Every structure is written in structure tokens, then in C-alpha cells.
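ok, trying the design again with the full structure, not the truncated one.
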């Protein structure tokens, strides 16, 4: 199923997320996840699905920090990684404003610069979010898995056209953020 297929993009290529870059599930192997051993004197920023959902495009704050012990069971993701939530707040996306850790309820996507961009894929997910959420509803806690994301097909234009779309949408986002700030 192609979630973003319309009359206007029929000539775009069908691609899967794995063809556009690399993505991996966040890590949080230690249980319980709120064990104080993971956080005492923490210095490595950690975000959760709620912080992805609450972000206005970029995640530029965090509440918790892992310490060295916490980091050993996790990973730090680079700035501009696209975070995609797969549990609780499904298909919410935001980009990291600085390096951070995130749990296994978030997938990190880093675009192949020849194929796409994290920002373009953020806009694609914004467009298809409701369809993904509807397809995942019905269980006790709605969620999707990395295999689900791997199987998603997208209509994707050539990279230079993606960049033009991103430029227009970024200008509109900036205007909206300025309006909300005033």
C-alpha cells in the first residue's frame, strides 16, 4: 500500500524507507526503564515518544539524561536524525536539534543525501500520519514495528524536486512558528 499516492504524484518513483536511507530502532534494553541506575548524574540527553509528539519540527529540549551505565544499553543519535514513534504516539516525527538517545519505541532515520532528506521524510510522515495511525489501531496499545516501516512504500520525486518541496514547506513552517510565538 502506498500511503501518499495522489493524482499529482503518479509519475514519482515508488520507494521504501530502506531505499532512502538507514533506519534503526532506538535502544533501551535495561528493565525497568526507569531504574535510577540509568540516570544518576546523567549527561546524555534522552527523549521519549511524548517529546517527539510535542516538538515543533525539532526536538530542542529533553527531560532526562542517561549516565554512562544508561548509555551502555542505549545509543546516541546524531543531530538531524528523524525520530519516528512506533508505540504510544504512533507515526509522530521530529528531528533532533542535537545528539540524543531514545528508547526502542522510537525509530531513527538518517537519509542517504543522494536519495532524500530527513526533513522531506518528516513532511511525508506528517501527510500520511493519520493513515498509519488508522492502520495500527485496534490493539490494547496501538503500535507498529520496524518491519511495518520497512514495508511502507512511498511516492518519492527526484531529490532536486524534494528539495524544492522542503524549501516551500519550511518557509510555511517558519511563518506558523512566528505566528504562534506572537
Amino acid at each position: 500500500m502506498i500511503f501518499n499516492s495522489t493524482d499529482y504524484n503518479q509519475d514519482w518513483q515508488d520507494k521504501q524507507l530502506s531505499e532512502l536511507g538507514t533506519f534503526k530502532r532506538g535502544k533501551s534494553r535495561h528493565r525497568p526503564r526507569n531504574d535510577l541506575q540509568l540516570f544518576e548524574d546523567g549527561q546524555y540527553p534522552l527523549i521519549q515518544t511524548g517529546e517527539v509528539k510535542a516538538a515543533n519540527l525539532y526536538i530542542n529540549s529533553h527531560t532526562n539524561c542517561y549516565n554512562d551505565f544508561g548509555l551502555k544499553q542505549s545509543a546516541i543519535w546524531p543531530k538531524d536524525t528523524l525520530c519516528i514513534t512506533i508505540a504510544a504516539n504512533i507515526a509522530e516525527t521530529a528531528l533532533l536539534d542535537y545528539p540524543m538517545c531514545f528508547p526502542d519505541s522510537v525509530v531513527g532515520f538518517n537519509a542517504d543525501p543522494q536519495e532524500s532528506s530527513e526533513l522531506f521524510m518528516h513532511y511525508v510522515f506528517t501527510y500520511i500520519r493519520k493513515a498509519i495511525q488508522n492502520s495500527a489501531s485496534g490493539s490494547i496499545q496501538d503500535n507498529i514495528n520496524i518491519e511495518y516501516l520497512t514495508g511502507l512504500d512511498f511516492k518519492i520525486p527526484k531529490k532536486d524536486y524534494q528539495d524544492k518541496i522542503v524549501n516551500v514547506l519550511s518557509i510555511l513552517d517558519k511563518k506558523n512558528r512566528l505566528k504562534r510565538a506572537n
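Keeping the full-length input from now on. The chain has a mean pLDDT of 91.
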